[in-house]
Amino acid sequence: MFSRSNAVRTGKVTQSDIEIVKRLLIKAITTTNPEVFASYFVHVMIAPELGRRIADKLKDKSNELDVRRDEIEFLLWLHEIGRLVDPQAYLKDELIDIKLLTEFGIAKPIIEMLLPIDKFIKAATNRKSTDSLFESLTPSQRIVNLADNFGKRDEKGKLFDLKSLSKYLKTEKSRYGGNPNWKPEYDLLQESIVKNTIKWLSEIGINFDQILKSLTDYGPKFVIVSRHGELENPKNIVYNRDSVMKPEDIIHLSGYGRGQMKVLGKLIKKRKFRVSHVSHSPSTRAVESKDEMMKGLGMRDIPAISIDNLDDVYAPGGYLEGINMDVFKAMGGSSNTYTHRWDKYKHEKLDHLVARIDKTFREMVKNLGIGETGILISHGDPIAAWIQHHIAGKIPEPEELQNGLYPNKGEAIVAIIDPQRKFFTHYILTDPSLKAGRRY
Q1: Rounded to whole angstroms, what are the CA distances from 321 to 193, 331, 338?
Q2: Listing from the earlier edge strand, what are the strands of the sheet with 423-428?
Q3: What is the enclosing helix (H) or strand (E) of 222?
Q4: Which residues have C-beta within 8 Å of that of residue 53, sequence separation ≥ 6?
Q5: Can you tell me the distance from the alpha carbon of 83 to that of 34, in angstroms, rounded to the nearest whole number?
Q6: How far is CA 186 from the centre of its chain?
């Protein structure tokens, strides 16, 4: 991806190089399904913008300073990529960052804009070296480090300031105390560096607090799209919407399925997604999935809304003809649902399916605050058609629906919305604690 970029060939970054970085990050997140906190993605998007805005102010104040704005933004998009490799690392992720950037072929002068780890470790063990370390940093290194530390939001969604940063650094012991790479001196040194950087900016005439405030409404949003859990289907029927089935045939979650959804809720909470909205399909299996997920989230105060647009594909033919699930699978499963064989039942088409799910998705995004998360609980075909449409930019062919990204029961996909309110990327929530589900 970088072979023809200016960042490799000339060491000078252009906006096209920054777009390459974004494409790399999009692919890396989707490929690794990272076990990171939601705050990781908040940080990854805010830090580059903060660094760019600081650099712009510096450029306006002085042309004598060697401030490389595009290189700063470029590097800040990449500077936490090591977390995708090792989410729980301390200092090690910085070394992974450097190793990856070197393997990408990024020019050395760009990589060197990161805070020098060797000098940082040495200065932390010798307090007399603290000021000399700061003085040795270039303007670009100071900006990258400052944006790295302040390009975050706390658990309530408030942007970091000096007070919240200090509080955050004090929690490092509880998070990394057992890590041999962590030392309390590192946190004290980092706080000293950022204070000196803010002071340096002030002496130039730049109000750092004002730049931070300009980012109040800047950042990503998240929508977690989950399929309902495993089911009790003693008759092995081809089920569909509640509205097309007899009351005695309506499908409920199994005990395993209830456990699936509760554990999924616990994981969403563990990954620190700030859930503010929950919507679900009106079908019983989705309602029960919502109830169990809410138990796992431990959030009874958030109203959950039933939305018809999240219901299963309208495809009553299999149920009305009394087809066995094993026979249905042999017929091609979901792919067969959209063939002309079912025309007399007016089965819903994939384009309509995608349109109604996307409408609900966009309405939820609109209602979310910065950094907040909404949850949508739906069904296999609707989720698969919708996410495949976002991935490929087109409606999937019916025969290809099962071959693309298709969630198993109890599985959830995280959609990340960028600060411009566009679909950025997605990944599947994975964790050893989750209970595996089946396609059918």
Answers
A1: 72, 14, 16
A2: 304-306, 274-280, 372-378, 221-227, 412-417, 423-428
A3: strand 221-227
A4: 211, 214, 215
A5: 8
A6: 28
Please check whether residue 65 is in contact with residue 138, taking contact to mean a CB–CB distance below 8 angstroms: no
78-87: average pLDDT: 89
> For domain 221-428, which architecture applies?
3-Layer(aba) Sandwich (3.40)
**Residue 389 and residue 356 in contact, taking contact as beta carbons nearer than 8 Å:** no
- DSSP notation for 337-384: GGSGGGGGGTPPPHHHHHHHHHHHHHHHHHHPPTTEEEEEEE-HHHHH
Whole-angstrom Cα distance, residue 335 to residue 323? 15
- CB neighbourhood size of 434 (10 A): 17
Residue type, 397: E
- Candidates 143, 267, 264, 276; CA nearest to 211 is 143
Classify 331 as helix, strand or coil.
Answer: coil
pTM of the entire structure? Answer: 0.95
Residue 376 φ then ψ, to 5°: -120, 130
Say if residues 234 and 222 touch (Cβ distance below 8 Å).
Answer: no
- The CA-based dihedral angle spanning residues 114, 117, 119, 125, taken in that order and rounded to the nearest 10 degrees: 140
Q: Where are the domains of the chain?
A: 6-213, 221-428
Task: Please report the pLDDT score of residue 207 as a whole number.
Answer: 95
Report the range of poorest mean pLDDT among 83-97, 128-142, 374-388. Answer: 83-97
Give the pLDDT confidence of 99-117 residue by residue, as tens digits.
999 999 999 999 999 999 8
Residue type, 207: N
In Å, how far from its chain's centre is CA 427?
7
Kindly report the backbone phi and psi dihedral angles of residue 308, in degrees, each rounded to the nearest multiple of 5, phi listed first: -60, -35
